[in-house]
Amino acid sequence: MTVYLVRHASAGHRNDDDPSDVERHLDAKGRRQADAVASLLARTKSASRGIRLVASPAARCIETLAPLAEQLGTDIEIWPDLLEGTPIEVTWSALAKAAEHDGDVALCSHGDVIPELISRLQGRGMRVPGRAGSSKGSVWTLTRWDGQRFEKGVYTPG
Fold first, then answer.
1. Which of 5, 1, 25, 2 is CA-nearest to residue 135?
2. pTM of the predicted model, to two decimals?
3. How sure is the predictor about 1, in pLDDT bands with cuts at 50, 70 and 90?
4. Residues in contact with 123: Cβ distance below 8 Å, sequence separation at least 6, in sequence order
């Protein structure tokens, strides 16, 4: 089982004063990045078996997974536990829940959530061969969950 941890694609600039920032949509660059995420994940072995798609409620996360959902003919589940600003214990529980799923899962979240999860995974012994990061439109491929940690995490920049 594999979990793909996807950072949402480019969506312009954050406005912390705007309560509707959760509705910020992908920009032109973000739409290209979302297509690249779809292309990357559609080429995996997971795609032939089906990938469960789960996103933060933010429009930019849903739109990042939309091209893949269309290619795979599947729906996107919305998990508020992946939303920006969610405490690490909550997002950790969401990741563990996804990892316990029978099949492969793509989770789309934010630039504050993903680095915290990766840091915790590394602290629990996850190997990261190569570089690490959290650029917009990037994908972490997490493999071999043992109930507490993934054995390996591979980063693909956006």
1. 5
2. 0.94
3. confident
4. none
Locate 17 and state its tokens.
Answer: 């004063």
State the average pLDDT for the chain.
93
Enter the tokens of residue 3: 């979990």
Rounded to whole angstroms, the Cα distance separating 158 from 149 reads: 24
CB 9 within 8 A of CB 111: no
Q: Give me the pLDDT at residue 46, please.
A: 67
Q: What are phi and psi of 126, to 5 degrees?
A: -65, 130
The strand order across the sheet containing 76-78 reads 76-78, 51-55, 104-109, 2-7, 139-145, 150-156
Show the CA angle centred on residue 98, arms to residues 92 and 13, nearest 5°: 65
CA distance linking residue 146 with residue 142, whole number of Å: 12
Cα 78–chain centre separation: 12
Q: Let me know the angle formed at the C-alpha of 96 by 108 and 59, rounded to the nearest 5 degrees.
A: 20
Q: How many domains does the chain have?
A: 1
CATH of the domain at 51: 3.40.50.1240
How many helices (H) and strands (E) the chain has is answered by: 5, 6
Q: Which domain holds residue 82?
A: 2-13+22-156
Phi, psi of 96 (to 5 degrees): -60, -40
